[in-house]
Amino acid sequence: MNHRERILAVLNREPPDRLPWAPRILLWYRARQLTHTMPQEYEGLSLREVERKLDIATAARDGKVFDAVHDDSVQVEEREEGGKRITEYHTPVGSVRQVMHFSRDLEEQGLPGRVEEFLLKGPKDYKVWEYVVEHTDYVPAYDAYRAYDADIGEDGLPLVGVGDVPLHHFAQALAGYEYAYYQLMDYTQDVEHLLAVMAEVDKAKKWPVIAESPARLLLHGVHLSSQWTPPRYFRKYILPYYREFMPMMHEHGKSVAMHADNDTSAILNEIEEAGWDMVECFVTAPMVPLTLREARERWGTRVIIWGGVPSLILSPSYSEEDFRAYMYDAFKVIAPGDAFILGVADNVMPDSLIDRVRWITDLVHERGRYPMSG
Asked: pTM for the complete prediction?
């Protein structure tokens, strides 16, 4: 089997010939380029060529199945002033703006800037954003997806980002974690009305485009966590959305993953109940208070795990002895290899030791053939 076939086998609940191994090395690769510290054996190679040399599947996260397009009544203005990027949305019912501090160095490494002022500060802004949401269409970009999918070929399978649940999008992107839950408490009815508008527009305009798309594997839902979306919020604001979204996607042959690089120890039951087929970039101890063994015991093979290698253990600060001991134990947990894609949570970071990635590749070849003995 090639990398693509192994990932598809896992999605189809079939045994791969060996454990799929698909870490994200983009941040490491960009950092080595930026600092001119690329190891000699990878010098001059493209990202894909480095991935092939390491014998790892490509993460394939640049595919898309739609373009979000505002109608002419929504004008978006973006400008840069003194290291700040200011984005303003102008509508007939008012304007909102975001201010982000950024740097070229961060952008070149694929790292975001820091938002200093979020779009939504209170009820007046919610009305503006409701207008923006209602006057946004989702235009199919299926040909772009097919071209990207063909380019990825046997090196992997595109994981296509198609959005987030309204509550978390509000908290992370629109109001900011620091302020979102204060606003939810202070303006409960207004925030809930905004979330309802976002959900209804998603259902009417976005979901059909996603469902009819040629994509096989979708990414919907990011950074949901024990802290920011604990069970009571999850059950009230997130479960109802996915109880409608998931059946529609499954009826159209899609698998849906959640980006799970936060502490999910308190919401494991809710994740399964919501219907995700997979948690990807799934982070575990020593980075969060949840071990791979605990997650596997709770979910069995009902939820596919894409992860198993916390990025911390690839760092020089983590001893070689402890790194290898962790990996040997992880392979015992993963055995016999059902419903699992080995990956790094969240990324192979700029300071990671790439030789350890190569070592894991060798371990997969040595001990990852299905069924794994443990």
From this structure: 0.95
